[in-house]
């Protein structure tokens, strides 16, 4: 009986831990990261922040290049793992149009026409236990 009770408690603990993680990690990074520095050079945009892990411990230097999470779909920036938008976009700017966490670029569509397009990076990048990822 004691072994069954311990197994049940362990299972319940794992279930609660599993339910808790998605509520704190894997959401937009701006809710759990601070002191973010977003920069662009040409089409190469990235951010570096201090992000909290699941225990609430801050991790400085969490960094990601947005090309790993953002793609160009027919002239529009969109969230996509291993997106590589930089190959067909140029003139990108961070915190564009006065909006923190937004990048804007001029991107080519399938017909090679240029389009000005913007995207909220918070929709594509998440805090995964103190590290930034897609």
Automatic annotation (TrEMBL):
- Name the source's superkingdom: Eukaryota
Which part of the chain is the Cyanovirin-N domain? Answer: 35-132
Where does the UniProt annotation place the signal sequence?
A: 1-26
**SUPFAM superfamilies (alphabetical):** Cyanovirin-N
What Gene3D superfamilies does this protein's entry cite?
Cyanovirin-N
Q: Which UniProt keywords apply?
A: Signal
Q: Identify the Pfam families for this entry.
A: CVNH
Query: What is this protein called in UniProt?
Result: Cyanovirin-N domain-containing protein
């Amino acid at each position: 009986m004691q072994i069954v009770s311990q197994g049940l408690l362990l299972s319940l603990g794992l279930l609660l831990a599993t339910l808790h993680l998605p509520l704190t990690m894997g959401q937009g990074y701006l809710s759990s990261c601070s002191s973010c520095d977003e920069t662009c050079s040409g089409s190469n945009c990235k951010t570096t922040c201090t992000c909290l892990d699941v225990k609430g411990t801050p991790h400085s230097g969490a960094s990601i290049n947005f090309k790993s999470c953002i793609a160009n779909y027919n002239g529009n920036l969109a969230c996509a793992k291993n997106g590589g938008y930089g190959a067909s976009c140029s003139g990108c700017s961070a915190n564009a149009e006065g909006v923190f966490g937004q990048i804007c670029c001029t991107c080519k569509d399938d017909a090679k026409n240029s389009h000005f397009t913007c995207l909220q990076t918070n929709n594509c990048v998440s805090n995964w236990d103190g590290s930034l990822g897609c």
